[in-house]
Amino acid sequence: MILAGSLSLRLLLALTTMASGLNIPLEVEQPPTIITYTSGPIIVLHFDTAITVKCKARGNPPPEYRWEKDGQAFVPPNFQTIRANQTKGLLVLHSEDMSKFEGKYRCYASNKLGTAMTNEIEIKAFSIPKFPKETLSPIVVSEGEPITLKCNPPEGVAPRLIYWMTVDLQHIEQNERVSMGTDGNLYFSNALKNDSRQDYGCFAAFNRIRTIVQKNAMAVVVKRLKPANDSSESSHTPVAPPARIPSLLLPSGVQTEKVLLKGEDLQLECIPEGFPTPSVKWIKMGEVMSPRVKFNNYNKLLSLSAVEESDEGKYMCTAENSAGKAVHYFDVIVEEPPKWLTEPPQSQLTVIGSDVHIKCSVSGKPQPAITWRRNGVMFRDDPDKRMQVFDDTVILFNAKAEDSGVYQCEASNRHGNILANVNIVIMNMAPLILTENNQEYAAVVGKEITMNCSVFSSPPSSISWTKDEKAIEGEGFLAFESGQSLKIINAEKGDSGKYICVASNMEGSSAVTAVLDVKDATKIVGPPQNTQVDSGKLAKLMCKTEYDASLQDTFELVWRKENKEIPLSSEKNSRYSVKGAMLEIMNVNLSDQGTYTCTARTSLDEDSATAVLTVRDVPDAPIKLDLSELDSPRNVVLSWIPGSDHNSTVTEFVVEYEENRWEPGRWKELQRVTGNQATAELKLYGNLNYQFRVYAVNAIGPGPPSEPTERHKTPPAAPDRNPENIKIQGHHPHQMEISWEPLSPVERNGPGFEYKVKYRQLGVEDSFTEHMVNRSVFLVNNTPTFVPYEIKILSRNSYGWGPEPKPVTGYSGEDVVFWHCLRENVSVPTAAPRDIAVEVINTTVLRVSWTPVPPATVRGRLGGYNVHWVRRRSLLNPDKILDLSHSMSFSGNRSHVIVPGLEPFSEYKLTVYVFNKKGNGPKSDPVTFNTPEGVPEQVTVLTSSIIQRDSVRLEWAQPPKSNGILTSYLLQYHLINETALEVIDSKEINITGADTNHWTLQGLKGDSLYRFDLRACTRAGCGPPQAEESRTDFPEPGAASQESSFSTHGWMIGTMCAVALLTLVVVIACFLRKNKGGKYAGTPSPQRQENLAMEKVKEKEEPHSDTESQKMNDDTFCDYSDSDEKPLKGGSLCSLKGDDATGDSVSRYTLGDYADGGREFNEDGSFIGEYSGHRHRGSVSEPNGPSLVNV
């Protein structure tokens, strides 16, 4: 990296006599420097038996240690109790009585070049605090006189707290008259008779050592004052004490000087005596009182925390009562211990012959006195005038090597002292390079790298860097630390190589070599993507990386979740696994949701990328269900608080109920509400004991139910509704069966439930015939043949009737005429539909219309119409006759229907006939029509093979059904981003020629993933695509010929496999069809017809049970049938049929296939919206409009 505009790194340091923070390497001889020591004071408690005092210094040669106590050499009196380590500076003191070690200690560290010393280390020893044993005489005073109870608490480990209590540990009440001072004494401004007691006790608590000591109890006797005429009659009359001018119990005198250090807390106290009890006031004379001032102890104590110089001055307290007043003055003086004005004096390295200045700048109040020492020994001016002391400054003129040593500056006043050790090293020395020669450095492209060249010399050296014998220049290089470090700001591959550092001064020069290797940076080229996954599924996070191959052994890919490393275990039950660059989380749950970070790391650098994993799960159960009545106990509102939706919006809430009368313990659905609603209005049945619960539903599924509500009981009531789905059936002439859907037990609303059946002949009878029944079926006999009846079914219980029902109309049984012993049935319809018209909607759907038959020709109740069509031939092969038959039944009276399921590009013949319950009517005249071309089916086989790095050969087979004349193939190919699995670029080619079965694509991007979509096309459009994925790349040696050989015949192999599969399907279908056909004969044999006729006669003669009547009512229309003459009972609604008599295969469809995408049927069976053919996944082009064929 050589940039324009040179920046010379050849640095020449100016000679200096002072270095900030002198740091001489230990390879060079130097005087001791104190590194650390135990600062005082050291508190020794009464239970301590040993203490350790530390003192550690560095130097060359290694220093030895000695100790002083109170200014005298400390000689251990007993080797067993004291051990001083002369090489490590550790002082360990052992004794049962540690008080003998009290004092001020100093540690001295010495070698041949000098002596360093510590500040004073004070050791304080405290014994168990105790009050002295003493006998205290009672204090006797008269009423109104002051009392002072002295505590004189023992000294001990701070903090010390003083309490005044009785012997039964009741606190002495304190107030404006009685209070404790800061000295621990209890003061009474004036005595009252009730102050007399024998158990005033002073207690001192030392919390640090968990000790409380008590002084012997003191007695106080207060004498009652006697009146002036002390007669027996007046001796019991109370006499008030005379007024007395206040005076101060504390402090004494008129004025007190209060000296304290800056930052300490100020406390001024005035405790007065007098009668009446004086009040205390404070002022600061000549100044306004600081707002930080606080008053305590009934205004007797002035407190000011962390005093400053501005708090100095004269304060006055005034004690005043009705008899007069007393004052006291406080002179507050704020002082400071010694401190450095800026910083302690710094050690210095200088050359022989230079002048050395050592300045010790301190402040304090009072002004500190400065003491100078050299190697721990005090000194003053040198007789030969080479060293002079000017109070806070020492000057060494024309310094020599022997002047080297440790100089101590100690500043002290009455509040403390501070000490600085200043190492003065006077020497001339050639450069000593401390960095190892041929030190190897590794860096990555685009990052910083710093190469070191640590040098020690005196005077300082000039340092230069070169590479390939050229001075290093350019803005990309930066030298710092006086040239002892060279930083490359943005490393490049070209920066690799050998760098030489040369250091020189007047004493000589030295050089070292540094070797730099710049490697490729570690990068995440495919970061993980934000992912949503359902609970219980597998989550995958991909993190593709690139790194320098030489760092393979140190490379690792670390995954973290919320900045906490994911534990990857080889155990089978571990849910986390890493496969290459992919992290897989099996059976994810909500705890797996969060931010995931993948970190690609080598020994030199790392790169990170994050992605958010969102876990979708079923919703939590709703909480805090609340049930409240509206206008009655049967009309309630249930409300709840939804739980978390777990990242999938709640679509609905389901309210369930359980009642303990009919089905206890069984929960049933009662109501559903939308997901944005948290209340439900519930209509309840009567005479039940309910409880409710709610669960939420989202796209993942239903969540757990809530806790059930309390029981809610509803009162009995009349039924809310009458039976529904009433059916009137006439299985035999002169008979009518009435059935209905019964009310469930919970709908009965009360006891004594039953039904009332009412019926009358429509238009003939005025009044209803009524019957009370308990069943849900009723049989009416002796009815006229096939006449209409009006029927009502009512519900009732012991509390009343249900609402008035709407009448239902039905018919009695139909007539049957027999000829030749019922061998010929003549009750089927007699007329065929006319004016048959076919409208071709698209390739597979028709609209068929006709003129309905006259009602009289139906010969009974109209069942519906049947559409029958035959596929004559495919227009792709018109010479081959197919004759494949299909039919579809449509219930009710209608004039047009929609017929789906036809084949495109085919010729059809279609007829229509009517049917009733007895059979089919004659067929209409046939209509012949053609269906238009459709889009082809999917290409069955699509294979790819690599020809060259940018070329791919595709081969395919024709679709199994072209549904028209093939015109071309549409080929689309897409370049895929393998990381995001997204399409980067897409192109398409129209391949003409129906016989084309291969294509070669050239100019593709090498080493890339492509997806190929191939569609077959007719004039109607293109069919669904067949997809194939392939990666462009050079084929491996030895594999090209094999792959080419396989691809040459791949389409043939695929075609043969497809043909074999279709053949197998046809064989299985024929086998199943053969077995199924035995159950349904096309036309019964004559013997079988006769037996059937006899069975019908027997059915007319025998009465039918209710169960048989219900079975005969399965008159479902629009059925499949295996014959044009006899529809099957119980068939499914509107399904196709095949004609077994022809022996052809049967096609079956459902109208549901044509109702997707918003398409619906009207009540008459026609489509609503657009018509389309059978659904395909590809795009489909249909003819412009339907064609109409009329007969």
From TrEMBL:
A GO term for molecular function: cell-cell adhesion mediator activity
Annotated ranges, domain Ig-like: 32-124, 129-213, 246-328, 338-425, 431-513, 522-614
Compositional bias ranges of the Polar residues kind: 1181-1191
UniProt domain Fibronectin type-III: residue ranges: 621-717, 722-815, 832-934, 935-1037
Compartments reported by the entry: Cell membrane; Cell projection, Growth cone
Family matches, as PROSITE patterns: FN3, IG_LIKE
Assigned keywords, A-Z: Cell adhesion, Cell membrane, Cell projection, Disulfide bond, Glycoprotein, Immunoglobulin domain, Membrane, Repeat, Signal, Transmembrane, Transmembrane helix
Family designation: Belongs to the immunoglobulin superfamily. L1/neurofascin/NgCAM family.
Protein name: Neural cell adhesion molecule L1
Taxonomic source organism: Maylandia zebra
